[in-house]
């Protein structure tokens, strides 16, 4: 492969079979879609590139523009990478839930960072959404990508992630398991796959403390569902336009502890260093294992790489502080059941 810039290296990520973890415990073959292998180490490379290039096509971005986004980190990294190539400036608002590694990565690519309190309600002027709006309103020649509401986010996955999974499973995929944050990765991919085969089961993954599953069940936004959780990128406290609720056949909530233990298992047993939400996605596969047969083919999407989480889930001290590990390294007060 030879590319003109890093942008051409985005997408075409492999599917990797997870037989060491799933082989004896799940009857269907399970493949991980390795979005960590994008050049920016996450699925957000696809969404950011598509949103920016659609904005260019629509004349919304002029030379030297400032790109603005509210992001848990990954979208910011992708925007900063693309801004570097295309000569744009980049300002990112993020919550203080994003760890120091994520912040350092963004700064390394030349992005300016505005840190906002993680527990501020979206309408609070201090929230990372409000701060991004404010910056977009005051900086001339700026473009706020709005990944939660910009449907080019899911469009990216409709045009790339979905077709790749269809082609690489030779149309045999029966279950697609994917985290929901903005919903872009889940919805765009699911829309393509269901167009190819409406019987494909789409399993969304949500966090306890997020409003998405309850909204999917009831159509009602329930603020009482909200409390803080640890898995970055997973779940929401708002309802983004990019979550296509009608495409989701099952929605599974996964807790911080189960996700942490699973992602460590992925590293230790499959040799795959992945982000915290990848552990949540794999845990959701275990939740549906009883409905799976050897004829099924499961694809679980792994949103990002584990290098950004060395201070958290891959740090034994952090795991012990959360009560997830005993000092001897064994899982505390809980064992992975499956
Ligand atoms: N996991 C991680 C680590 C993420 O950064 C994101 C994106 N915020 C997601 C999951 C969810 O992806 P999406 O926004 O496409 O729903």
UniProtKB/TrEMBL annotation:
Enzyme Commission (EC) number: 4.2.1.22
Membrane-spanning intervals of the chain: none
Gene3D superfamilies registered for this protein in UniProt: 3.40.50.1100
Keyword field: Lyase, Pyridoxal phosphate
Cofactor(s), names only, from the UniProt record: pyridoxal 5'-phosphate
Domain spans labelled Tryptophan synthase beta chain-like PALP: 7-304
SUPFAM superfamilies referenced in this protein's UniProt entry, alphabetically: Tryptophan synthase beta subunit-like PLP-dependent enzymes
Name this polypeptide is given: Cystathionine beta-synthase
Organism: Neolewinella maritima
């Amino acid at each position: 492969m030879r590319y003109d810039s890093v942008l051409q290296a985005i997408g075409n990520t492999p599917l990797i079979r997870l037989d060491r973890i799933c082989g004896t415990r799940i009857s269907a073959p399970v493949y991980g879609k390795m979005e960590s292998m994008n050049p920016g180490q996450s699925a957000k490379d696809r969404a950011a590139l598509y949103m920016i290039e659609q904005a260019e096509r629509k004349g919304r971005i002029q030379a030297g523009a400032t790109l603005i986004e509210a992001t848990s980190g990954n979208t910011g990294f992708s925007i900063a990478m693309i801004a570097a190539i295309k000569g744009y400036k980049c300002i990112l608002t993020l919550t203080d839930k994003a760890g120091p590694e994520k912040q350092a990565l963004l700064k390394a690519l030349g992005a300016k960072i505005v840190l906002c309190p993680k527990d501020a309600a979206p309408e609070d002027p201090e929230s990372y959404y409000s701060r991004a709006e404010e910056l977009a309103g005051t900086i001339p020649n700026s473009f706020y990508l709005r990944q939660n509401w910009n449907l080019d986010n899911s469009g990216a996955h409709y045009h790339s992630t979905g077709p790749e999974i269809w082609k690489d499973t030779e149309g045999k995929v029966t279950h697609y398991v994917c985290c929901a944050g903005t919903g872009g990765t889940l919805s765009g991919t699911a829309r393509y796959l269901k167009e190819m085969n409406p019987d494909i089961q789409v399993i969304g993954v949500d966090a306890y403390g997020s409003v998405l599953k309850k909204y999917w069940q009831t159509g009602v936004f329930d603020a009482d569902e909200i409390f803080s959780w640890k898995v970055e990128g997973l779940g929401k406290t708002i309802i983004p336009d990019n979550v296509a609720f009608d495409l989701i056949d099952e929605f599974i909530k996964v807790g911080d502890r189960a996700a942490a233990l699973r992602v460590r298992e992925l590293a230790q047993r499959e040799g795959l260093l992945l982000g915290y939400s990848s552990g949540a996605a794999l845990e959701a596969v275990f939740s549906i294992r009883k409905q799976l047969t050897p004829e099924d083919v499961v694809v679980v999407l792994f949103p990002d790489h584990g290098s950004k989480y060395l201070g958290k889930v891959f740090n034994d001290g952090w795991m012990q502080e959360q009560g997830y590990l005993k000092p001897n390294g064994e899982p505390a007060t809980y064992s992975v059941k499956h």
